[in-house]
Amino acid sequence: FHVIGFDCDEDDCPTVDLWFHFAVRRRVEDLRLWLSHQTMCNYTLPGFLYGLSWLVRLDVGGCCFSLGATVSWPCLKVLSIDYAELSDDFVGRIIRGSPVLESLKLRGCWGLRNVTIDSLSLKKLVLRGRSAPFNSCVENLRAPNLLSLRVLQGTHVDFRLDHVPSLVEAKLDLHVETDDGLSYSVGCGLMKELLQKLHNVPTITIGGWCLKVLSLLEMDGVPSPLSKCQNLILHAPVCQSDLPGIAYMLQSSQCLEKLVIHLIRFPK
């Protein structure tokens, strides 16, 4: 059951409720509701949604969650939440109430600070931020069993990886955006600490903003943390000014076996 880009005014909420009741009667396992950006946060998800025992995939965007609700999704494997207010406690209840959850994507969400994921089943996490002044509200992540992590777009300058020892792949295609635009200098400490936390990860992908920050570190003579990276992927519009950043990664990756450069267009 998929509804994409629906303009939901307050008068339309009862209609959306009817759609959900229809989906429940049909015991729909794959449920997707994306509201349009113009009408985000006009609709609050119904209470019975949090107890659908047969739900396997849930993808919602622009909806309001009842942050005090108890969550019981025993069959849920894939969860994607876009543009919603969340809380550390609510995400914790989602994790505990979804014992077979394998993939979690949080895009443009706010209200999160210290996220702990102790689940043994959840292996893939995507954190996609928003533009300034919001960026990502996740400041600290602890996920001891996570295998794959992607941190994309706007990210809080204080973002930290607390404990991610099981990662086998990580993608850093993030940026820190201030009111004055993209800022490279404020990201030097962030990138150095992230690479230190990811020093045991065998596959690392670096985006364009991150590569420019690494170039600053190289030109400033900042030592690069040693890495056990075997597969390095650069996903960036590489130019001459990015070469120091590439050198910064290569000199720290003494176990490197494969270098892949995906050239992308410069942003307009």
State the helix count.
5
Largest sheet: 11 strands, parallel
What global shape is seen? elongated
What is the chain-wise order of helices and strands? EHEEEHEEEEEEEEEHEHEHE
The end-to-end distance, rounded to whole angstroms, is: 36 Å
Unreliable spans: none
Structure summary, number of beta strands: 16
**Widest β-sheet, arrangement of strands:** 1-2-3-4-5-7-9-11-14-15-16
Mean pLDDT: 89
Work out the strand percent: 25-35%
Global structural class: alpha/beta
- Radius of gyration, in Å, reads 20 Å
Give the helix level as a range of percent: 10-25%
Commentary on this structure:
By secondary structure, the protein is α/β, with parallel strands linked by helices. The chain has helices spanning 13-25, 88-97, 188-197, 208-219, 243-252, and strands spanning 2-6, 30-35, 57-61, 78-82, 103-107, 114-116, 124-128, 140-142, 148-154, 160-163, 169-175, 177-178, 181-182, 203-207, 231-236, 258-263. An eleven-stranded parallel sheet has the order 1-2-3-4-5-7-9-11-14-15-16. It has a three-stranded parallel sheet with strand order 6-8-10. Helix 4 packs across helix 5 (243-252). The longest helix is centred in the first third of the chain and has 13 residues, at 13-25. 31% of the residues are buried. The model has no long low-confidence stretch (mean pLDDT 89).
Relevant terms:
single chain; 268 residues; eleven-stranded parallel β-sheet; three-stranded parallel β-sheet; 5 helices; 16 strands; elongated
Describe the secondary structure blueprint for this structure.
Elements: E1 2-6, H1 13-25, E2 30-35, E3 57-61, E4 78-82, H2 88-97, E5 103-107, E6 114-116, E7 124-128, E8 140-142, E9 148-154, E10 160-163, E11 169-175, E12 177-178, E13 181-182, H3 188-197, E14 203-207, H4 208-219, E15 231-236, H5 243-252, E16 258-263
Parallel strand pairs: 1-2, 2-3, 3-4, 4-5, 5-7, 6-8, 7-9, 8-10, 9-11, 11-14, 14-15, 15-16
Antiparallel strand pairs: 12-13
